[in-house]
Design brief:
The chain is mainly alpha-helical. Helices cover 69% and strands 0% of the residues.
């Protein structure tokens, strides 16, 4: 098949193939991608395309169907992998009971303070890294971490040593080894 014959075949079938794919694909972008891939395959196998126009059209629809099926299989694998990852993360996040003293104490913190403590203690990030992620200055992270640790200590004091609390969650060393004096909350 010559390039001119291929162009003619494209002109005669592209609209019908796109309509076919639009009815079956999840969205118009996927349909357009499948159409492009169909014609790429057809170009690479242009010597195998039947010379009869109606047979060539059916051949292209078969290629489009296979491309769409393969695209769906990939989407299904991605969806399954995403679901498995979500289940794993949910299992990890729910490993501490809701009435666990540490969980309850952390819930008493503001969302930003809780995030800072979790990043410092459990994710083992440095204050500078936490600052970058949260778009804060390292000093603000250290101050907020210091205050949050004080609140956590107060809430956990009456319980004595609590198993499962990372030392870094309560340690001033996680805020750069310095003790930071509390300042007014309005400063932030």
């Amino acid at each position: 098949m010559t390039a001119d014959d291929f162009r003619t075949l494209y002109d005669q079938t592209a609209r019908g193939l796109l309509a076919y794919l639009l009815r079956r694909a999840q969205n118009s972008e996927d349909a357009a991608d499948c159409l492009a891939e169909t014609f790429l395959i057809a170009w690479n196998k242009r010597d195998q395309i039947p010379s009869d126009e109606s047979q060539a059209s059916r051949w292209l629809f078969g290629v489009a169907r296979n491309v769409l099926r393969r695209d769906r299989a990939v989407d299904d694998k991605v969806t399954a992998a995403t679901a498995a990852l979500a289940r794993e993360l949910q299992d990890r996040n729910s490993s501490a009971p809701a009435d666990d003293p540490v969980t309850l104490a952390l819930k008493q913190l503001s969302p930003i303070d809780r995030e800072i403590i979790e990043m410092l203690a459990w994710d083992q990030l440095a204050p500078r890294e936490v600052a970058t992620i949260l778009d804060l200055s390292p000093n603000v992270v250290r101050i907020r971490a210091h205050r949050a640790r004080l609140k956590l200590r107060q809430q956990l004091e009456h319980l004595g040593p609590v198993r499962g609390v990372p030392r870094a969650a309560m340690s001033p060393a996680a805020s750069g080894g310095r003790t930071v004096e509390p300042v007014n909350e309005e400063d932030f």
